[in-house]
Specification:
Elements (H helix, E strand, L loop, with lengths): L1 H9 L9 E6 L13 E12 L6 E16 L4 E8 L2 E2 L8 E2 L5 H18 L28 H4 L8
Helix pairs in contact: 1-2
The structure holds zinc ion (2 copies).
Length: 161
Amino acid sequence: MAETWNSAVRQKSTELHGHTWHVTFDDSITPDGTAPGWYQYISGSFAGFTCSLCKRYWASKRVQVIFHFYLNSASNQGTIKVRCFKQECKRCDEAQMEEPNFPVENVDVLVERLVGKIRMRCYKEDLGDTNRASKLFDKIEGPHESLHCEACHLGICSQAK
Ligand SMILES: [Zn+2]
Ligand SMILES: [Zn+2]
């Protein structure tokens, strides 16, 4: 999974001034705040889940993703921490929180938006209104299973009504 995100970021290398930006998953980051020197970007996209017990597949229209990013200007290396909110199967009693699987094209769009934020925050570029990112692929309708959504449990889900 991390490899998909890292390769999407590598493709944006020229926009990131040729600096190396590395993506790591970190389930400990929260939307409440960032460490000193770090910036935050919260987004979300359609994603699919598979229950590791019954193998059932379900999709969710907007799965929350939090990015915390930091540029070490001494080494010209950037770090991006990513947390994707999980969901659990509604059919299994012993269900565990499953990681979302984002379509590759949506990872590309999320990274495109994130890179825009990085350029504005870390490189102080003024992108103005030209920073219009591509549209996310999103094909489902239907109710959101708040009971089984990690972001809902934390009260930060964008799908909760
Ligand atoms: Zn299940
Ligand atoms: Zn939710």
